[in-house]
Known about the structure:
Blueprint: H1 2-15, H2 25-38, H3 54-66, H4 70-95, H5 103-114, H6 125-146, H7 150-164, H8 170-188, H9 198-221, H10 225-238, H11 244-257, H12 259-277, H13 286-300, H14 314-333, H15 343-366, H16 374-388, E1 396-397, H17 401-407, E2 432-434, E3 440-442, H18 449-459, E4 463-468, H19 477-482, E5 483-484, E6 487-488, H20 491-497, E7 498-505, E8 512-518
Parallel strand pairs: 1-4
Antiparallel strand pairs: 2-3, 4-8, 5-6, 7-8
Helix pairs in contact: 1-4, 1-5, 2-3, 2-17, 3-6, 4-5, 4-6, 5-14, 6-7, 6-8, 7-8, 7-9, 8-13, 12-14, 12-15, 13-14, 14-15, 16-17
Amino acid sequence: MIVSAILVASFLSHFATISGSGFLSDESVYSYAAYAIGRGVVPYAQIMLAHPPIGYLSLIIPVILAQGNVVLIRIYNLGSYLLIAVISFWFYRALREGSSGSFGSLASLALFSLYPTSFAMTTPIEFTVFDIPILLASVFFVTGITRGSNRRLLVSGLFVGIASMIWYPAAFFAISLLGFLVAYHLGKHRNQPRLFPLKQLLSLAVGACSAVALVLMLILSWGALPNFFAQTVTFESIRAGFTLGERLRHIGLAVSQFLPMFVLAAVGGLELVRRVRNGADTLVLLPVWVVLVNLGLLFTIPKIVLNHYVVYLTPFIAFIAAGPVERLVQMAVSRNRAIKRGTYHYFQGALAVSMIAIVILTYPFGSAMFQTSPYTVSNQAVGQYVMSITLPNETIWTSEGGIAYFATRLIQAPNSTTWPFQAAYNDIFSATYVDSDGISHNGLGVVSPADFVNAWQSHGTKVLVFILGDGPVPYPDDFLWNGFPGTGGVATWVGQNYREVKVFTFPNVSYQYFVWLMK
Length: 519
């Protein structure tokens, strides 16, 4: 009953801000990619995908059923988030040995589900879906250890492999599980150091490798294996990395976004250590280990670190942070005056009250409640207009996946065998570009404006939409239209072969949208 009430409250609180953020950038790119694959576009061979395929494939049905309705897409996202909450509660109970009377699991669930800046509404669905196999792997990992079951560890590894075929940082999670398994096993057998957990490690590894192998076989059946490695591995390795200042800025954003929970977790982690010293099972330290290892690897290894990269760790942070909240409730409801309540206990209770108060007081000022982003409105309007002047089987070109999705039209990729971009950013050309943090970098040079012209000409692309102006998304349109040092733009060719039929401007939107129709 309490779990259901928490989930309902979570749905209602997040639904209030479901349309507040714009349907653009990564969210629209991934949603459009799923739509295109559902329309028969071959992944990696006919559309450039920056990540492994499972995330995109999982979005095909909801994206197509939504038929351009952003609210429905985000309700699916929110439903995925609530599913994660349920699996998290299963994980919390497993860590606490299934004690039905433990308030700690409920406190952890409430912290995760009700925290106002949840990743369910701030990142693409693909990254929400990523946490489902991560948490299922965690559940089977814990139960595999507590029940001595290598089969459960095999299943845990299988889910780790599935997660890695959504987003490669699952490798960091795998490292944390393997490291914890070794440390936990050796700690349990201090007097027998030769008893290395080889079978358990092999179970995890075999499960993970099996899932990865199956997905690679699927990609091989598409005839896209070389492109898969080029787009998901090579592309990331040749992209310009963040400067130290950019890296620190995004790390700071990640910490500030979850600051109350991090503060609670700092004290809650110490409480978990105290319990282990007093005889509790070391397994309760798994979330602490996972968070520390993954944060350390995320903040140091990837060339690009965005603030939403850490959100898959929030179920684990919530478990750690529940300590002070649990202490507060125990102090409030306990009638046994014989229970010792030291200064540290009162400190935990006061900390929990203050952090919860900060969240409640600041939430209304940082959330666009019952509002629709003007950028979503602009993409919808342009997309609907493009749909009205094209036929379903005709292709268009736009760098914004949301416009193509709302138009229910496929984007014509440039003539590039390896890099068939169907929505892109301004780093694809061999031009010096400025990223969203205002830092200049050298472009990749993987395609040229001529590749786009050749594709439009040979495939008879019906409509071109150019997005010009400075805004939250670094579109490549300015380089494509005007050119850059050493390379001419497409403006002259477009003017000769297309006619401008509409220019869109919108209140509170910093872009102009120029629609060109083939002559």
